[in-house]
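Q: What would this chain look like folded?
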Amino acid sequence: MAPKALATKKKAVAKVKNSTLKEKKYKVTKQRGKTAIVRAYSDPEAYAQRRQQEKPPPGGWPKPPAHWPAGVRVHVGRPVFWIPEGWGHGIKTTCVTRLDAFVSPEGKMYYHRCSVEEVIGRKLGPDDNLASAKNWARQQVLEGKDWRGKLAKFDPDARLFACLSQGEKEKLVEPGTFHVAVISARRASEIVGLRAVVGVQAQLVASGATPVWYVDAASAAEYRQLGLKVEIGGKLVPARNRALGDAQKLGKPCLQVSDDITRWSYYKGDDGPAGNLPAGNEAAKKSTRIRISPMAAACFLLAKMRGVPAGQSQPKLGGVFPLGNTGMAFVKGANTSEHFILGDFFVQDVGTKCKFDTDLTLKEDYDFTCTHLAKHGAVLRCNRMIVAAVHETNPGGACSERDGAGDKERANIAILQRKWPGVFSLNGNRGDGSTQVTMAWRRRRA
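A: My prediction, written as structure tokens:
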């Protein structure tokens, strides 16, 4: 939009605004030809603070460019990432709220990003095009920040660890104990995928991890350009096995993480099984949610696994509740030993050679759970720990292994049913009834 047209539009908006003020009978005042609503302040200290004269930085305020309008000083803080080339970022000194001001090469001043976008006729920022998104993603990875440019924050680890028994607390390890593997593919070529990659990396780094990204060969260069530590793992199942093998060589427990998890939570409440969904919903409402870090979650799971009393089956695989429904999570007991372990976030301890079956391209985590149950007699699923992830729709990753007709899903289900007779039944409550399964290890037939 041309500057002249924009000015006409602003006058029309002001006219409508003034008419609205009169209709609603607000108490208004006119100062220097402008109408303002009269609002009595309620915080004298804040009112006075806003009106204090700013202290100049060492060396004084930078001199504004000659074409800048009067009453605007140079912004000396962190510049906005979306500002167009040739534009300046300033602060309006004649306003008590010290508005951000964006000055065009022609010396025109605007206060909002949307106004700047109207003037130049295009969108601005990392979400507008892939090149900007990649540059922004690289900057955030290098600084350990998320897509919003902020450091990840969690509740103190002590709140989570207080939920362990004394014996389990003695099994706690440091985050550096783990080999942390993020299983990913083809996320760095999509803006949505880049958002997810940056978010996962920021949370892992903030919680003390040095993650390794296991990706397909075709995507490796794009991931490395983001500043990530990358290993070529191939497709989904080979990448998982490569990560397990690397952890085994290092003598470390392997933590595998999906590339699109946005949040880890632990719900502190009744440890017993509620028995049915209404009771589970009620128990979930009474629980306290703890915002946990991914590495605190991993340490918690490993401590639970290693804290199983002698004489019982010793699990070597631990994971989280596979759904986001907290009511359903409370239907089960706090920890169970023969339920499905989701591949999005799990820990495999040292002392096992269990691997993923390369005949499977999907639902490989169901088979992996059964392999552990057959080998070690138990797994450890924490039904009070839940991850939030984008499943089945996010571009790249395992989604690229699926097909719209569901034929690949059905082919992998057939393998599961042949390999583990009686364990897997079709789940008629999800999809078309032929592409999802339920798992019951107790129904296994010899």
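The chain has a mean pLDDT of 89.
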